[in-house]
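User: Teach me something about this protein's shape.
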Amino acid sequence: MIRKVCSDGVGYSVVDLTDVRHVFAAAVPRVSGDLVTQTWDALRTIESVMKEESTLGSIVHQVVFLADDSKLAECREVMREFYGPEFPATTYVPQKPCHGALVSIEALGVGRKKGDVTIERKSEQLVIASHNGVSWIHCAHVTPDPEVDGVYHQALNAFSKMRGILGSVGVDFAQVIRTWLYLGGIVEGEGDKQRYKELNRARADFYQNIRFLTNYLPVEKGAVYPASTGIGVDGHHLIMSCIAMKTDRRDIVAMPLENPRQTPAFGYGCQYGPKSPKFSRAMALSCGSYATIFISGTASITNSETRHIGDVEKQTEETLDNIAALVSEENLARHNLPRLGTTLDQLALVRVYIKNPEDYAKVKAICDRRLGEVPTIYAIADVCRPELLVEIEGVAFSHLSCDSGHC
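Assistant: First, the predicted structure itself:
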């Protein structure tokens, strides 16, 4: 179902779902030099992949990881020159690539295999890709207004701006399936509070009256929240992005997944903050015989407690164990999606956030062994607890398995 290619400077996955081709690519520069030189090289590498896979001009969403945030404007100008009118929704993340380059790029291309794909490029922040009666709305690089102070108020402001951007194309915030919340100084204090806890307080308050994805749930659910990653970045920035889904199809199912090895994040006790993190461990979207699973940022936590403090290798193994359990057949069946479970080798795209640069080789060796060839971004970032050394997120795909000769 997934074809993966990893070579010098680029890894990519090709996923053909019914009559539409999805290409996930992660590129690092193959040359030295300044930011402009490295960015052009990474972009040309991705361009050659998209051309080879017949998806040229189809990039709808990209994330650019920058070693030096002061170069953001320079990088953005390169992007504008390269893409012209085909600009994807782009988020610029101030996280240093682990391999020492000045930039790395993750991109999603959606192109025709046989069916029609329509791409509406509304702005550098908003792109809509529609096919098979479903629209995927990519909203990128939402930041709070500069005059707003304090993480709590900044987060409320950014969430409100995101809601406005989605609303401009007739999409309600309740249709959001996946968010990314990038927060500088994530485990630092802010007065007598912690910045990440203030972010969670704002998210809980903003989500309070939102009933997510009610039209797509196959069964009555209690708390339903999008999948999410909350991760540190350099400086004290707050940057958000999201994916939303809009469709009138009746056969689309959205199911938030929880992990049997972990307490739901929204069920954490008060020792982890005045308001718990409101996100699901993953969001599974099924259509017919296929499922796409958006895996939230996952760390070395079982129940609600951090495991293997001080040991990055054991934390990486535990994190991958958590992801394997999350996407397993047993867990999907538990969530009313029988025969749509999958395994680690069906991940199409992975991001690995590592707290300490010196741990990169150890973490990469474990990921290479357990994940095999998969497009992967490795970036330096603080995780949401001071003792956590690694966090991993990704996208997995599954195809309905057969039993007793029937599918």
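Now, about its shape. Residues 402-407 have pLDDT under 50 and may be disordered. The radius of gyration is 20 Å. If you'd like, I can walk through any region in more detail.
User: That's plenty for now, thanks!
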